[in-house]
Amino acid sequence: MPPLVSILVPTYNRPHYLRLAIESALAQDYPSFEVVVADNSDWANAAQNVLAVATLRDRRLRYYHNGSDLGATGSGNRLMKELARGEYLKFLMDDDLLRPNCVSRLADALSHHPSAGVATAPMDIVDGAGGKVAPRMYLFSRVEERFRWRRGDQLVPGCEALREFLTSGYPCCVPTGWMARRDALLDTGGSQDRHGFAGDLGMCMRMAVDWDFAYVDEALASWRYVPDCHTARMHRSGVEAEVFYGLAREFLADADVLELFAGEDWIRLARDAYFFCSCRALLNVLAAARSGSPALATKALATVLRNDPHWSNWLRLPLWAAKQAVVR
């Protein structure tokens, strides 16, 4: 019998999208899985979610109401720590979609790579109706897919993945795009409140300290981008860039991370990590241009000056910003 996969769906007041998400989960071609829903809605709105779930009538589907608003972090942690039964854990955000072969492809990657704690794959971007779109992020760049990390299926050493998380990009972080071994995910301690909106990023970085990453070079899920989604709002109002610096400081001070990168140029790694955080902070200037908010631009620059201790990074930032201004 193949390993049981728990598809975990945290939800909050989105019955229409929730039903579509669950239908995509139940359509998986993998022979051994469960779908577990944790509803964070207030009781008045939960009735619509209950109805959406009840009409599906599938023995592989379990629904739970949290009883009180646990927040996104608490709801996700309850799913993986208390409710999931599987050996492999696969999150599905309630407005996203899985392709029918998503679970089978990711589970196969984990089974074939015992050193991998995480299997990840690219994601298409779709609109509210499910059609593929290429939205402009912040002000200039069009994005046609998320997390295309490599060319070809492969096993990526954890230290290589962590270096990229720290200094150049995000191999994965949106939970719909990856699957983890139960032990690997639970050993992270779950999503942490101190990481704010980047709790999923913190978990992925923590897993990279101890595990390799299996990459599947095929879009296996769809990430929904609509005008009122959290990401779209951040592109207008800016992100809490302090979170990125906090993650960098936390991991750069971690004894296991120091051991992982022993023998490398640690000063350069730390400088590049802070530069990457400063680039994330500077994206808020683009958000400020989009929303017409000089205060947001001023705050972004103050955040860089307050958190990045490397003056050489300050000199590099204008060139990086100029490259972002090229319309694509």
Topology:
Elements (H helix, E strand, L loop, with lengths): L4 E7 L3 H12 L6 E7 L3 H12 L6 E5 L5 H13 L4 E4 L5 E2 L3 H11 L3 E5 L2 E4 L9 E2 L3 E2 L2 E2 L7 E3 L1 H10 L10 E4 H5 L12 H12 L1 E4 L5 E4 L5 H8 L4 H11 L2 H6 L5 H26 L2 H14 L3 H14 L4
Parallel strand pairs: 1-2, 1-4, 2-3, 6-13, 7-14
Antiparallel strand pairs: 4-12, 5-14, 6-12, 7-10, 8-9, 11-13
Helix pairs in contact: 1-2, 5-7, 8-11, 9-11, 11-12, 11-13
Give the neighbour order of strands across the main sheet: 3-2-1-4-12-6-13-11
Shape type: globular
Helix and strand composition category? alpha/beta
Q: Helical segment tally?
A: 13
CATH first level of the largest domain: Alpha Beta
Count of distinct structural domains: 2
CATH architecture of the largest domain: Alpha-Beta Complex
Specify the oligomeric state: single chain
Number of strands: 14
Query: Can you give the helix content as a percent range?
Result: 40-55%
Give a brief outline of the structure:
The chain is α/β, with parallel strands linked by helices and 328 residues long. It has helices spanning 15-26, 43-54, 71-83, 102-112, 158-167, 182-186, 199-210, 230-237, 242-252, 255-260, 266-291, 294-307, 311-324; strands at 5-11, 33-39, 61-65, 88-91, 97-98, 116-120, 123-126, 136-137, 141-142, 145-146, 154-156, 178-181, 212-215, 221-224.
